[in-house]
Write a structure and sequence with these properties.
Strand content of chain A: under 5%
Distance between the termini of chain A: 23 Å
Structural class of chain B: alpha+beta
Number of strands of chain A: 2
CATH topology of the domain at 653-871 in chain B: Rossmann fold
Transmembrane segments (chain A): 64-82, 107-128, 163-185, 205-227, 234-252, 283-305
CATH superfamily of the domain at 653-871 in chain B: P-loop containing nucleotide triphosphate hydrolases
Keywords (chain A): Membrane, Transmembrane, Transmembrane helix
Protein name (chain A): ABC transporter permease subunit
Oligomer: heterodimer
Strand content of chain B: 15-25%
Strand order of the largest sheet of chain A: 1-2
CATH architecture of the domain at 653-871 in chain B: 3-Layer(aba) Sandwich
Number of domains of chain A: 1
Radius of gyration of chain A: 25 Å
Shape of chain B: elongated
Largest sheet of chain A: 2 strands, antiparallel
Chain lengths: 315, 958
């Protein structure tokens, strides 16, 4: 039965007879105590799959490490691109580069502009879309559920962990960008594309709100990816599906003929946070965006919970 | 599989439904957007004089009677050039009257530049005419409810009409003038004071002739190419980029004055063929106006008579009588009628007690006509003031700021609003920020003939370059030797200039080189980047004439009002004041001259800033309430879910000691496939039970149901008396290995087990890691990542994982798959010993031999049904039953039947089965041999094997 090539590997794989004795002894000596609900004493549903454990499981994945590492690197890459790019052209008045490199907060704003349409939803889709589908694809999901980790708890813990990782990503990028910006461009005013300027200390507050808004805005991706991740055993399908919907929504958002209908697209308010770079902050777009995101997230989240509650685990 | 296709179908249908609904929604919404129908009626109306006929169009909305709006056209236009705006207003529900003014279109008469007794009187006739129309709401007999609007020349008419006719109820003049003499002959230097409004200009006498614009104007009047009015829309907030290639003409109809300007040809030069049929150089201008123009154009100076004439036809003549609500719209890109003109209008109307709102937008004569948003705002103005509909637009001030820096796709215009135009009656004066300028005294010369001249703007080319602020600000060019420069330090903070900055300059002649005519100078304010790139905001320049300079070189101190602009000067950029002696757009003295220009001591730019009022709207409540509702629903759903999970404890105390009782268990899938059908069996403590059946018998499905992974369609599973469901606490007493190992491939075997145990939340000392790992016997390999493991290693690690915590019931699915024979042997030993220690093991297998050698009890399944159950010996050995393979089965059967006590003799091919009932098999064998039957083989009857082979045989025949 063992494949031929495994023989060398399995060479020293054997059970020591003494180990058997130990196990038998242990089994014979240990009295199993049972709680009234039928569980082994020591088992408590609310202690299963604690966040610390799930975070450890996720943070030790190469994929997560790569994503976080990339986010740390990205501002440096952009800085380098500006450095080398401007030397080549020399023409940098009133343009893209000027805005981005005028101050640290502006650099952060620029980086957020660059990532908030595609990269950020993708990362969130990755964290949420992968979380349960990958367990299913590894077949480890069934062992978690048989532990038993109650299903609602498993989904909740997984969602919270993915949320924490996403939040880390959303915070890490601006924080790193700010660091790069402070080093190279200094703590100047934040200037919006419409020419509104706010002082550095106020811009820090604006950036904080930006991170909060972005975290709320991507909830819709989180909800959708969560729904997909409980619906399929293929992590790529769940992540890709969520990203695909995000792209579709962005494409539809470009079609101005749709007019008011575009307000219902989940990505429509992706840039509403740019209203924060202003002396007189207009919250209406952000509030609408937050509502849109929360509504989508709630819809897909509840759908996910409903599906996962009754789903037959066959992986 | 049908289960999947069914659910896919459901999703497909749902998706289709969503698409259909969305498509329907689009159709419905679009049909709702269909603009209301507008009927038009053309008529020729009588003007104020007998011989005046006015060509007009009345636009009627769907619902009449309605308030009326008179739309006046710009200079060089006709009623057709305002067709788009008129239609828009009619769609908003107003009766709109568009007409061609005297001397324009097919209306008769001469152009009198909005003279009170000519064009303005005509307009009053129109008001009277409107009062007679049944479609128009009237306030009183002969007094229609009427508003008036118009751009540029039409804007001036609006003001003049409102000032001379009380029947006008509201007005919205756009990009128009206050004082035509100052618009065409501005002088921005004064030795006196400047009003407190943000865009106030010195408006001193004796101005410098703005020859290029005046020429364009005159040309338009004589029927030449009309470059006098902007033909594209200005960029608005929310527009993603100002794209000069995409001019959006209001209403869609191309305005007749929109003439393509080719290259940099001087505007106004080309008359369309047949444009001049009289040969009269005055064209349709009234003689006195024509003469005044000729005077100014030839001398560059205006006589008092000319100034008086221009003032008499300017709104300033009547602004003190305007009490109607006035919306003043002025462009920030306007070198013809700058912000200072609207500023003067606002000041004068407000001083007379009128109600004024001021809007500065990104366009103007160089930038573009009001865009759709602003046109909407104008319509809102009339909606409120003529009909009382909508929100009160108030008397505030708003200005559009176009960002200096732009990101692709980002809106580059925003609007700043305050509740009052600064400096008006009773209001706060405009704030001014001092920006210190530096620069020594400089000498600049006026070349003979004023040529070559500096360039600040390209008047009339608004449609070509003016709409692109990127281009417009960069045309500016100063001739060396003719320009004095005073620059600030790089700014520490952004400075948003909103209006006319002022600066105090000292100007003197060089001793011994007196300037006869005083000094003509041009002041402009550049926005200079750290790399030296310069932008002249608004392309605007302030001409100044200092009438007399002492010949001894004593400087004259003047306050110069710089052009009204809206410009954010970003941090690290500088402002630079440049004073030149020439400007191409103006008539400059031909005599050569030299001047000394310097700043006053501590000279500084006084830049007006108008901070926006923070909108008090606060957080928008609608979406927030929505979020609250959604979160409330989620909480409700969570509570409901928790309530559903709270099930009654289903515990049968009698079965407390029975590891597993399966009762009538069924699992059927959609489509009627029964994976498990009415399965019942029982497992007692200490047993090693084998679940035997061919592949597809339902073994794994049963085990999955046992683990709560699949919900049964019927029947129940009890583990130690507790009913099993997904997440049932009693599952913690089961250790399982079902259908393959499940490990995190990126972690080591050891880490996997540790994390698994950590996930159970149970105390680490109960795990017995060491024992379990030793059972797995992976040696050092436990520290390698699982993805490097062989199938067998994973299998052993998975079994070790199942044993963590020494579960009372160990459930293993095909545990020996992938193991080699010595390992299989060890595994059997492990399971037997484990059960012997008082625990229970349930093993599934499709191999009879496996079960026979490992288990003491067996449950045989096939097609989801129970086939046999019992102790292995009972089923395998068959107490007292024997099987003989013989050559003559019939005879052998007879022989056996004759033996004492032997019964149940069955013949099956070459085999004869019999219950020997205590008779030794050897004896029976001897009996057969004695009877002459050749016995090939004799042994216990293997019922299980029979049954099993039969099942497997069936399987293979399929």
């Amino acid at each position: 039965m063992t494949p031929v090539e495994d023989h060398s590997v399995d060479h020293d794989v054997h059970t020591d007879p003494a180990a058997l004795e130990q196990l038998t002894d242990a089994a014979a000596q240990e009295r199993v105590e049972v709680a009234p609900d039928g569980s082994v004493v020591g088992y408590k549903a609310r202690r299963t799959l604690r966040l610390r454990v799930e975070l450890a499981r996720q943070l030790r994945r190469r994929r997560v490490q790569l994503v976080l590492g990339f986010l740390v690197l990205l501002p440096w890459i952009l800085w380098a691109a500006f450095e080398f790019g401007t030397e080549a052209t020399g023409q940098r008045s009133g343009g893209f580069v000027d805005l981005a490199t005028s101050s640290a907060p502006n650099f952060v704003v620029f980086v957020l502009f660059a990532v908030s349409s595609f990269l950020l939803p993708m990362i969130v889709a990755l964290f949420f879309g992968d979380t349960i589908a990958s367990e299913a694809s590894w077949s480890s999901l069934k062992y978690l559920l048989a532990t038993p980790v109650p299903r609602h708890r498993l989904m909740r813990q997984k969602a919270i962990t993915s949320g924490l990782l996403s939040l880390l990503a959303i915070t890490l990028l601006p924080a790193m960008s700010l660091l790069v910006g402070l080093i190279f461009y200094g703590a100047g005013e934040a200037v919006s594309p419409t020419g509104d300027a706010i002082p550095f200390d106020e811009s820090m507050l604006a950036l904080l709100f930006t991170v909060i808004y972005l975290a709320i805005h991507v909830l819709w991706v989180a909800g959708l990816a969560l729904f997909l991740t409980v619906s399929t055993d293929a992590p790529l399908g769940a992540v890709g599906g969520a990203v695909l919907v995000a792209i579709l929504s962005q494409i539809l958002d470009q079609i101005t003929a749709l007019e008011g209908l575009r307000n219902y697209l989940p990505t429509h308010y992706a840039f509403a946070w740019s209203d924060l770079i202003s002396r007189d902050i207009d919250w209406s777009n952000m509030a609408a965006g937050a509502f849109s995101a929360v509504a989508y997230a709630a819809f897909f989240g509840l759908l996910a919970a409903r599906r996962f509650r009754t789903k037959d685990i066959t992986s | 599989m049908s289960r999947f296709s069914r659910s896919h179908l459901r999703w497909l249908l749902l998706g289709l439904a969503v698409v259909v609904v969305a498509a329907g929604g689009v159709v419905w919404l679009n049909s709702g957007d269909e603009p209301p129908e507008v009927r038009t009626r053309e008529q020729t109306l009588a003007g104020a004089a007998d011989d005046i006929t006015l060509d007009s169009t009345l636009y009627l909305p769907e619902q009449t009677p309605a308030p009326a709006i008179i739309v006046a056209h710009g200079f060089g236009g006709s009623k057709d050039s305002v067709d788009g705006e008129a239609r828009e207003l009619a769609q908003r529900g107003f009766v709109v009257l568009a007409y061609s003014a005297r001397g324009f279109g097919v209306s008769s008469g001469e152009i009198s530049l909005n003279a009170p007794d000519a064009e303005v009187a005509d307009a009053r006739e129109l008001v009277s005419w409107l009062a007679e129309q049944p479609e128009v709401v009237t306030d009183a007999e002969g007094d229609p409810r009427v508003g008036v609007t118009g751009g540029s020349y039409g804007g001036a008419l609006s003001l003049m009409l409102a000032g001379t006719d009380d029947r006008v109820d509201a007005l919205a003049p756009t990009i128009t003038y206050n004082d035509l003499s100052q618009a065409l002959l501005p002088n921005s230097a004064t030795t006196g004071d400047v009003p407190d409004t943000p865009a106030a200009n010195a408006f001193a006498d004796n101005g410098v002739f703005k020859q290029s614009w005046a020429g364009i104007f005159f040309a338009a009047g004589v029927g030449g190419a009309g470059l006098a009015n902007p033909s594209v829309d200005a960029v608005e907030p929310g527009n993603e980029d100002d794209d000069p290639d995409a001019p959006a003409n209001p209403g869609g109809a191309p305005a007749p004055e929109e003439a393509p300007a080719e290259g940099g040809a001087p505007p106004g030069g080309g008359a369309p063929p047949g444009g001049l049929d009289t040969g009269d150089p005055c064209g349709k201008f009234r003689q006195d106006i024509c003469a005044a123009y000729a005077e100014v154009a030839t001398t560059g100076r205006a006589s008092q008579q000319t100034v008086d004439l221009l003032r008499s036809v300017s709104p300033m003549a009547v602004t003190d009588r305007i009490t109607q609500p006035t919306l003043l719209v002025q462009g920030e890109q306007d070198t013809l009628f700058g912000l200072d003109q609207a500023d003067a209008n606002a000041r004068q109307i407000s001083a007379a007690g009128g109600e004024v709102k001021v809007v500065w937008y990104t366009g103007g004569h160089d930038g573009g006509a009001p865009g759709p948003q602003l046109r909407g705002e104008i319509a809102d103005w009339f909606d409120f003031h003529l009909r009382g509909r909508g929100e009160d637009p108030g008397t505030g001030f708003e200005y559009a700021v176009q960002g200096a820096l732009r990101v692709q796709g980002a809106p580059s215009v925003r609007t700043v609003s305050t509740d009052a135009y600064p400096g008006l009656d009773g209001g706060q004066v405009a704030q001014r920020q001092r920006v210190r300028l530096y620069g020594p005294q400089q000498t600049i010369i006026n070349p003979p003939g004023g040529n070559p001249a500096s360039v600040s703007s390209m008047p009339g080319l608004g449609a070509v370059i003016g709409s692109s602020s990127r281009l417009a600000g960069r045309v500016a060019f100063d001739m060396p030797g003719q320009a004095a420069r005073f620059a600030s330090r790089p700014l520490d903070n952004q400075l948003l200039i909103a209006g006319s900055s002022t600066v105090r300059l000292l100007v003197s002649t060089l001793p011994g080189a007196p300037a006869q005519d005083g000094a003509v100078l041009f002041a402009k304010l550049y926005d200079v980047g750290s790399d030296g790139a310069r932008v002249l905001p608004g392309s605007a320049v302030s001409p100044l004439r200092i009438p007399s300079l002492p010949a001894d070189g004593t400087p004259v101190e003047v306050t110069v009002t710089l052009p009204g602009i809206v410009r954010p000067i970003e941090t690290d950029r500088r402002v630079e004041l440049v004073v030149t002696t020439t400007d191409q757009a103006y008539a400059t003295p031909p005599e050569p001259a030299a001047f000394r220009v310097s700043l006053v001591e501590d000279g500084a730019l006084e830049a007006p800033v108008v901070p926006g009022t923070r909108s008090d709207t606060g957080l928008p409540t609608g979406p927030l309430v929505g979020i609250g509702i959604v979160l409330g629903l989620v909480v409700l759903a969570a509570v409901w879910g928790a309530f559903r999970r709270r099930r009654a404890v289903d515990h049968d105390a009698a079965l407390d000691d029975v590891p597993l009782v399966i009762d009538n268990l069924s699992k059927s899938y959609a489509g009627g496939v029964k994976a498990v059908d009415d399965l019942s069996f029982r497992v007692e403590r200490g047993q090693v039970v084998g679940l035997l059946g061919p592949n597809g018998a339902g073994k794994t499905t049963s085990l999955r149901m046992l683990m709560g992974l699949i919900s049964p369609s019927g029947g129940s599973i009890r583990v130690f008396g507790h009913k099993v469901y997904s997440g049932a606490p009693v599952l913690s007493r089961i250790g399982s290995f079902v259908e393959g190992a499940g490990f995190l491939p990126h972690l080591s075997g050891k880490a996997n087990l540790e994390l698994y145990w950590a996930a159970t939340g149970r105390p680490a000392d109960k795990a017995h890691f060491d024992e379990a790992l030793e059972i797995a016997g992976l040696g050092d390999a436990v520290h390698r990542r699982v993805k490097t493991y062989s199938q067998g290693m994973r299998q052993r690690l998975a079994i070790a994982q199942a044993m963590l915590g020494l579960p009372d019931l160990l459930v293993l699915d095909e545990p020996t798959n992938g193991l080699d024979p010595p390992q299989i042997h060890q595994m059997r030993e492990v399971l037997r010993r484990y059960a012997a220690a008082g625990r229970t093991v349930l093993v599934s297998s499709h191999l009879l031999a496996e079960v026979e050698q490992t288990c003491d009890h067996v449950v045989v399944m096939h097609h989801g049904k129970l086939v046999a159950t019992g102790p292995v010996e009972a089923i395998v050995g068959g107490a007292g039953e024997a099987t003989f393979r013989v050559d003559r089965p019939i005879d052998a059967a007879d022989v056996l039947r004759d033996s004492d006590g032997v019964h149940d003799v069955v013949v099956e091919g070459p085999l004869v089965h019999a219950n020997l009932n205590g008779l030794a098999r050897a004896e029976a064998l001897a009996t057969l041999v004695r009877a002459g039957v050749a016995v090939e083989q004799a042994g216990p009857r293997r019922r299980l094997e029979d049954a099993f082979l039969q099942l497997v045989g069936e399987e293979s025949r399929k």
